[in-house]
Amino acid sequence: MPLKSSHLVLFLILLSTQLFANPHTIQYLKKDASLHEIKQLHEDQWIDYTEPVYEGTANGIYWFRIEIPASTESHIVTIPESHITRASLYQGKDEILPLADTRYRSFSIAPSPSATTYYLRVNCRLEARIPLQIEPSMRYHRSEQYEFLSMGVYYGVVICVVFINLISFIIFGNKGYIQYLFMPIGMSINSVYKDGIFALLFGSIGLNEYIEPTLNSILAITCVFCIESYLSINRHYPRLYRIGIAFVVLSQLLNIGVLLTHGAFSLYVSTDLAILLALDTFWLSGFLLWRKTKTIESGWFSVAYGIPLFVAHGYYLSPYFGLDFMNISFMWYKVGSVFEMAIFTYAIMFQSKKIALKNQEMRQTIVDYTNQLNKLHDKPNEKEAQTLELIKRYRFTLKEVEVLQDIADGCTNKEIADKHFISQNTVKYHIRHIFEKLNVNNRKEAGNKLMHPADEPSTTTQI
C-alpha cells in the first residue's frame, strides 16, 4: 500500500512537470545585423528571455532565437503588441510568412520531428516593449476565443453606457449626457487599437505604429467637454482650465507632427506626455474643487476619473522610461475605464435628479410668487371698491376718503398735509367733516369705523 502511494505521488510530480514545463527556449539581443551575421554570434552574446523585453526608449532592431523541441503539433508565435507591425520569422534561410486576419503579428510553425531553431527579427520603431508568446495552435485559438469573449463583454458595457446616456438625455434633457457620451467612445477607441481590432480589420500595416497618439488625443478633447459640462471648471479654476486646454492644443500640434513624419518617436512620446499632462491638469482642478466645496459630484469625479488616469500613467510612462515596476497590464486600463464609465453615468443621473428637484422647487417658487402678485393686484381692486362704498354710504369726497385712510394708517395732521400738499388747517377741515359724516368723536373711532363700520362711536371729540 505505501508503495502504491509513492508511485502515485511520483506520477503526479512528473505530470505537473510536463504540464508547467516550458517546452521551448527563447533568447534575444538588440543588434541591427543581417540574418547571416546573427547566426554567427557566440552563445554568450544572447540574453535569456524570461519576461517581455522592456527597454524603454532603446528601440530599434531586436533579434530573438527560438528553439522549439520536436513536436507533432504546430505552434503559433505571436507578438501581442499593437504598435509592432514589422517582424519577420526565419527558419534556416527561408522566411515564414505572417498569418493573415490576426489581431497581432503572428506566425505559424509547422510540426517537426526534431528540434528546430527559428530567428525572429523585430523592428521596434516605438517604445521597446516586446512581449512574445509561443503556444500550440489549439491553445492559441482557444485563447483567442476567450479574448474575443472578454472583448465582447467590455464593448458591450461601453455600448450599454452609450445608450443609457443617450436615453437619459432624451428623458431628462441634460446636455451633460451628450457631452459625456463622447468620453467612453474615446476611451473605447483606444481599446479597439490596443486589442488589435484595427489590424484585424485593415491588416497589420505601418499606420498602426503611429495612429495611437491620434486616438489618445480624441480622448483628451472629449475630456474637455465632459469636465466643463459636469463641473464647470472654467468658472471655478479658469487658470487651470486654460493650462489644460493649452496642453490639449500642444498635443494636437505634436500629433500633426507625428502624422507628417510617419511616427517620429520623439514626437510620439511628446504627444502622449502632453495628453497625460492635460488629463492630469483637469483631474487636479476637479480634486481642488472637491477640497473646496466637498460636493458629491467633484468627489465622484476625482475617484472615477483618477483610477483609469493612474493606470494610464503606468501603462504609457513605464515603457517610455523603462520603468518596469510601473508596468501595468492593459486589462487593468479596461477595468478602470469600466469603473469610470459606471461611476460617471450614475453621477450624471444623480446630478440630473438633483437638477430636476431644483427645477421643481423653482417652478413652485414661481407659482407662489405669481399667486402673491395676483393678491397684490387684487388689493387695489378691494381698495377701489372700499372707496366707492365710502363715497356711496357717507357721501364722502375723494379727498376725504384719502384723509380717512391716512387717519386709519396713524398719520398725523402734518404728515397728511405734506403727503397731499395741503395746509394743516385744510386737513382739520376735512377731519371735521369726516367725523360728522361717520358720527364719531376721535381719530381712533374713525379708523375703527373704516375697518368695522358697525362700531359705535364714543363720546369724546378729538381732532
Automatic annotation (TrEMBL):
InterPro entries: 7TMR_DISM_rcpt_extracell_dom1, Sig_transdc_resp-reg_C-effctor, Tscrpt_reg_LuxR_C, WH-like_DNA-bd_sf
Keywords in alphabetical order: DNA-binding, Membrane, Signal, Transcription, Transcription regulation, Transmembrane, Transmembrane helix
Residues passing through the membrane, by range: 152-172, 217-233, 240-261, 267-290, 299-318, 330-350
Signal peptide feature range: 1-21
CDD domains from the UniProt entry: LuxR_C_like (cd06170)
GO biological process: regulation of DNA-templated transcription
Ranges for domain HTH luxR-type: 389-454
Protein name (Swiss-Prot/TrEMBL): 7TM diverse intracellular signalling
